[in-house]
Structures are given as structure tokens and as C-alpha cells.
Design a protein that fits this description.
- It is a single chain.
- With 344 residues, the chain is α/β, with parallel strands linked by helices.
- The protein is built from 14 helices and ten strands.
- Helix content is 47%, strand content 17%.
- The strands form four sheets. A four-stranded parallel β-sheet has the order 3-2-4-5.
- The chain is globular and about 60 Å long.
- The N and C termini lie far apart (46 Å).
């Protein structure tokens, strides 16, 4: 269930049907969003707040254990409710912690970033990173509701908005070309259309056995790059990884499905207009390939991509040869290193 401010009274009904309410925030949302929640009367006098460190590097088992310890310390029972307020890191780990605690308590997601609104908070994927690999441990578990409050977007820096923009643009290749028209600032109606697109796909394939896999377009190399950089000062956001990863995905789509080369040229211009040029200096392509071998989409050691035949015509579970993956990364690096292109 997707709730907006105009029908938020349904959220209060959900809260009132539970014995205790816990609110999970990270340090950023505690500072920027807590007062907003109190203003719109979502926080009751007996609400218990749990605050965790901000950043993808804390989406791990230690932080999940901390959440569980706070639930135990405050005598949570199986009729308790956990409300996750934050970006994808908070909704991922909060949903995971709730779904495991006492074999599962209810949870609600209140995404505070554009990326979380149009992607992470919707669809019931929960998880944590493990041994340096993103979302390696987790489960499918749907929130009772996803509450979208557009005023939270006013607290975001441009880079966070760009991160969410990448996921919306992704829908232009796998759902409807009109999403490629997305530009900042986005209207609430446009964002709601992207949320609806994600919601429909995930409802039709809850546990990602088929068509839901198309949502991974741009993610195979994008996730690998994000994982590669997760412990460095040069780390990138999830959306930035997806934006970068769509370049080699389109290149491979041309190679495997004769995709019109004008489409990749069109996207390269979209990338240039909306995202930052990435410096691949010092990045090991072999290491990226090694990380991809651990991708959850793989089967029998094959690296599987989502590619497209045309706008709105995705193909999932495409086995791509290692040599072609390396070739696509080389193409991506050449694009990023083309000084003449970027200076125009």
C-alpha cells in the first residue's frame, strides 16, 4: 500500500492497531526529519526511537544486532511495529531486522530520499551487506505501507536527488520511454508515476522469479562498482552506480540484440546532462569482474544481465561472456575518458 499525505490517516489506523511503535532513523534523518514527523502527528508520546549511524558501510549484521537489542531492551512483542524513516540503507536494514525479529514483526517504510521513494522502499526487498558484498543476506518481506512525503525531498543535496533520478531514467528503458524526460526538479506527479511503475512490477513478481528482474537494468556493473568503492573515500551512491552501469548495459544490448546504436548515444547525452563524469583511474576491471561473479542474479557461475531490445523491451537472465563484459567496461572507460566529448 502506497500512502501519500492526503490519505495519511490510514497510517494512524495502522499504528493504533499495534502494541508498541518503534521508529528507526539514521543520524541524518534523526537530525533532519524527526521534527517533521512530529509536526504531522505521526509520533506518539510512547514512540521509541532507535538511531543508527548513517552510511552504506553500516548496513551490516552488527547494526542489525543493535536494532534487535533495542527491541528486546524495550520489551517489543510480536504485535510491535517498526517504522523505518530514511533512505535505502535504513529501509533495507530496518525491513530485514523487523522480518527476522521474533520470526517477523510488522514494519512501515517512510522513504526520505528520492532513490528510496522510487526504488528501495517499494517492493519488499530487505537485506544487509556481508563480507563486502551488497545485499548478500536478506529476504523478501513487504511493508504494511510505504508512506511518501514529498517535503522530505527539500532536505536533500543535489547529489542525492541525482541518485534517485538515475532509477527513474532506468524506467525509460525497461517500462516507458517517457521516463527518459525526467529532469530535476521533478514534480510530485512524475515521481508518483515512477513509484507506481515499481509497485506494479513488484506486485506481479514478489520474489523476483521472472519479470521483476528487469528492475536490475544497469545494476550488474553498477553494483560491482559500488561494492568496489564501498570502503573508500571515493564511494559512489547507488543511483550513480546505476547511471554509470546503464552505459555498458546498452553497449551489450547492441552487441547481443542489435539495439539501435542511436539509443546508446542518446543515453550518453542524458548522462552528460544529469550526472558527473566518473574517473576510472586506479579501478581494476578484473576486480570488478570478480565482484560480479558473486552477483545474486548469477546461476551456475554465469554472469547474467538485464539488456534491452528497444525502449520498453527488456530481456532478463542474459548470460554475457566474460570477455564481452570486459569489453563493455573498456567502452565505458573510453566514454568517461573522452576529454573532447566532455568539454563540448
Amino acid at each position: 500500500m502506497i500512502l501519500y499525505k492526503e490519505n495519511i490517516e490510514k497510517l494512524n489506523e495502522i499504528i493504533d492497531s499495534h502494541t508498541k511503535t518503534f521508529v528507526l532513523l539514521d543520524e541524518n534523518t534523526d537530525r533532519c526529519c524527526w521534527q517533521n514527523l512530529k509536526t504531522i502527528d505521526l509520533i506518539k508520546s510512547n514512540t521509541i526511537k532507535i538511531v543508527i549511524p548513517a552510511g552504506e558501510q553500516y548496513k551490516n549484521i552488527e547494526t542489525a544486532q543493535y536494532i534487535w537489542s533495542k527491541l528486546i531492551e524495550n520489551h517489543s512483542d510480536r504485535k510491535s511495529l517498526l517504522i523505518n524513516v530514511g533512505g535505502g540503507m535504513v529501509t533495507d536494514i530496518g525491513g530485514f531486522a523487523a522480518s527476522c525479529y521474533q520470526r517477523g514483526i510488522d514494519f512501515i517504510n517512510i522513504p526520505t530520499t528520492l532513490l528510496a521513494m522510487v526504488d528501495a522502499a517499494v517492493g519488499g526487498k530487505t537485506g544487509i551487506d556481508f563480507q563486502g558484498l551488497k545485499n548478500q543476506i536478506g529476504l523478501f518481506s513487504k511493508p504494511l505501507a510505504v508512506v511518501v512525503l514529498f517535503e522530505f525531498l527539500e532536505t536533500l543535496p543535489k547529489r542525492e536527488l541525482q541518485s534517485g533520478l538515475a532509477e527513474i531514467i532506468k524506467y525509460g528503458f525497461i517500462v516507458d520511454k517517457s521516463f527518459l524526460d525526467a529532469k530535476l526538479p521533478l514534480s510530485p506527479d512524475f515521481i508518483a508515476q515512477a513509484i507506481d511503475a515499481k509497485d506494479k512490477i513488484t506486485k506481479a513478481d514478489v520474489t523476483e522469479q521472472g519479470m521483476r528482474k528487469i528492475l536490475n537494468f544497469g545494476h550488474t556493473i553498477g553494483h560491482a562498482l559500488e561494492t568496489y568503492l564501498i570502503d573508500t573515500h571515493e564511494n559512489i551512491t547507488h543511483g550513480e552506480g546505476v547511471a554509470i552501469g546503464m552505459v555498458p548495459a546498452l553497449y551489450l544490448s547492441e552487441k547481443y540484440f542489435a539495439l539501435n546504436p542511436e539509443i546508446i548515444s542518446y543515453y550518453k547525452n542524458i548522462y552528460k546532462q544529469n550526472f558527473n563524469r566518473f574517473d576510472f583511474n586506479g579501478i581494476s576491471t578484473e576486480k570488478l569482474l570478480e565482484i560480479m561473479l558473486h552477483d545474486k542474479k548469477n546461476e551456475s557461475g554465469d554472469i547474467r544481465f538485464v539488456l534491452i531490445k528497444d525502449y520498453g523491451k527488456p530481456v532478463y537472465d542474459v548470460v554475457v561472456k566474460h570477455v564481452d563484459i570486459l569489453d563493455s567496461i573498456s567502452y565505458l572507460i573510453d566514454y568517461m575518458n573522452d576529454a573532447n566529448y566532455w568539454s563540448k
